[in-house]
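Chapter review: from sequence to fold.
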Amino acid sequence: MAGTTGTAGRTSGAAGTAGAGGVAGAVRAGGRAGGRVWRTALAALVASAVAIPVTAAASPDVPAPPPVVFARDAPAEGRYAANLANLAEAARTARGAGRTGRGAKLRAMEAGGAARFLAFDGRGKGRAVEVFGSLEGADRVTVLVPGSDTTLDTYQRFRAGAVALRQRLQAEHPRSAVVAWLGYDTPGTVSATVLTTRRADEAAVELRSFLDRLRGLSGPDARISLLCHSYGSVVCARTATGPGVTDVALFGSPGTGADSAGDLPTGARVWAGRGTGDWIGGVPHVRVAGVGFGADPVDPAFGARPFAAGSAGHSDYLKPGTESLDSLAAIVLGTRGGTGATAATVSAPGVPRA
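The token string follows.
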């Protein structure tokens, strides 16, 4: 469920959708033949629809210094400076070990010394939590949670979405900030891990802890929204958010492991949207023996508030100028923002606005 783009993404999406139909027959046959065949066929079905290979996968043995440890009440500015220094040291360490590709990617993350990271760990696949805008002055704070195969080696595509959202929000509401939260070890798209909620359950603990700290770093009355892409939607759906989070938006979601929005451990409004060009719509919404993610979040029976995503493909939801970006911005701001179908959907009768 990574952010693959271009021809490869379209080709893989088509293959995943076509493969789903073929394996579905095997699933039905497997149901007649026995439980083991059923589970094997189901796993193959979900994998064929979900597991899209991506390039630049991270190597787990990349050397780097240990992350900086902060006191819980450490101010944001101190964190930014220390983590930027750690990132620079990680880039030097990678180059010294002959890992020039990782070194170059880390130098790009420095953004000429202007990047602001609340957390950074350059070891292995890596983790990073980057802030765009002023947390202290923001009354709208958005946390982006990415899907599978988001690592330090693929970080720029994740950052691009955060930048686009920040710019879109700024145009309408200057007191906004965006946090790109790569705070968990994302599963590989070609792995058994990506087919279950186990990694998401582990990540949910990390995300809940981060949200608790975030309230101390942002303005006292800041409204916090979670925007969750692909496997990241599984993470968000399993996170107990607390009262500070007002909205949770799931997009490009394969499911959550829950039967309905009411089963999620949050009091926030839950939204769901999917673009017509998103291959993940072909993923089977089943859950057997812990494999798969169950109910489709965009199905009205799930109970999430719908938002218009236009023709977005799996990696397109946060691209500038898209209907999906307008819809997500409107959710964050609690406005009638957006145009056309977006405005009609977000402000539809029966869908409350903050």
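Two observations follow directly from the output. The beta strands are 117-121, 127-132, 140-145, 176-182, 223-229, 245-251, 269-273, 287-288, 291-292, 305-306. The two ends are 31 Å apart (CA to CA).
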